[in-house]
Design brief:
alpha/beta; FAD/NAD(P)-binding domain; six-stranded mixed beta sheet; eight-stranded mixed beta sheet; 32% helix; 384 residues
């Protein structure tokens, strides 16, 4: 008999897991607290380790419609804007069998959710936040904030870095501030001097801060993320609105390209948030409950692998649940395969953040930042 899977959270990891489970013939329901899958967030990068999974799930054509594939990934001097080093990303298909994509998160979410709903129009249950569960030897019953309940064979917590399930079932304290704040903005290309955004993807690295920018939505919008090292997060909540003037002050004296990009941010505001996380922990599974993505292993963004790790998790989880008739064994195998890989990337991302913010820009190589060896991992064929 097929395992009935309940997923808490319709993020990238949850939707990837749901789609992979559907394609394997495993029944799945995704419970999402938001009342609608609205257009939120900004850009993200997907390495070949993630895109080969999405292609294997039948999304290649849809992704080509919404993703940008940069020819080059460049590192520029933070003051002069001079290109220091470059990596030719158009060769990734030849090297790794899959492309490197940059895409608006909302567009990727739309592709995934449409695919899941095409298989089962009732697969995503909106307006239902799972706040707890009762697990037994034979199944799980989840409880939602609106008073409803549902039963299944296993529960997968994909509810992010502030995971309710992790806090309750693992009795863990809230994540800690990790010493970085980030500003994320979207700037229309039409508002910038012609030819300014060349090449399509670049990073500027300076003392205790850096900025990454790349094109999304058919090259019409520049997504940028500006990171600043700081000892404290004093704002209430995890993210707040920041003015362009605040970001310009943080990046005073940086290259003219950076100044233009920030000054012309859409609506004159961007989102400012603190980077929170925790050290890797030893167990992602408890009986019939398992964690996935940021709920299991929050990752600093300095390798651009946060989304990719959640997508890898989703594929391995689905394969394990499809392969093993005993769901407890399937979850154990999922954790055994994924925890070493994810913990390694967590540690590498942390070290990369330290390296970026302490190294003079002229000593920094884009190749060091991207670590192409990461891209070789294949969750579609990885032994389970």
């Amino acid at each position: 008999m097929s395992t009935n899977v309940i997923i808490s959270g319709a993020g990238l990891g949850g939707l990837t897991a749901a789609l992979a489970l559907q394609r394997a013939g495993v029944p799945v329901k995704v419970y999402e607290r938001a009342p609608a899958l609205t257009e939120v967030g900004a850009g993200l990068s997907l390495g070949p380790n993630a895109t080969r999974i999405l292609h294997a799930l039948g999304l290649e054509s849809a992704l080509r419609e919404v993703c940008n594939t940069p020819d080059r990934l460049s590192a520029k001097h933070y003051q002069t804007g001079e290109i220091i080093s470059e990596q030719v990303s158009r060769d990734y298909v030849k090297s790794y069998g899959a492309p490197y994509y940059q895409v608006h998160r909302a567009d990727l979410m739309t592709v995934l959710s449409y695919a899941v709903l095409a298989n089962d129009p009732s697969a995503i249950v909106l307006g239902h936040e799972i706040t707890g569960c009762d697990a037994s030897q034979t199944g799980v019953e989840v409880h939602c904030a609106n008073g409803t309940a549902a039963k299944g064979d296993v529960l997968i917590g994909c509810d992010g870095v502030r995971s309710v399930l992790r806090a309750k079932l693992w009795n863990m304290p809230p994540p800690a501030f990790l010493g970085y704040i980030a500003y994320r903005g979207l700037t229309p290309v039409s508002a910038l001097p012609e030819g300014l955004i060349t090449p399509a993807s670049a990073t500027f690295n300076g003392p205790e801060r850096h900025l990454t920018r790349y094109l999304i939505r058919g090259g019409t919008i520049v997504n940028y993320v500006a990171f600043v090292q700081t000892p404290d997060w004093v704002d209430e909540g995890w993210s707040v609105t920041a003015t362009v003037d605040e970001v310009l002050e943080r990046f005073a004296g940086w290259a003219p390209e950076v100044q233009h990009l920030i000054r012309n941010t859409a609506n004159g505001t961007c989102i400012k948030w603190g980077l929170f996380g925790r050290a890797p922990f030893d167990h992602w599974t408890k009986g019939r409950v398992a964690l996935l993505g940021d709920a299991a292993h929050p990752i600093l963004p300095f390798l651009g692998q946060g989304a990719s790790m959640a997508i890898e998790d989703g594929m391995i989880l689905a394969r394990a649940l499809a392969e093993f008739s005993d769901p407890l064994e399937a979850l154990r195998r999922y954790e055994a395969v994924r925890r070493p890989r994810a913990n390694t990337i967590v540690e590498m991302s942390t070290e990369q953040g330290k390296r970026i913010h302490r190294a003079p820009s002229a000593d920094y190589s884009v190749k060091t930042g991207l670590r192409p060896d990461i891209f070789k991992y294949d969750a579609v064929t990885e032994p389970i």
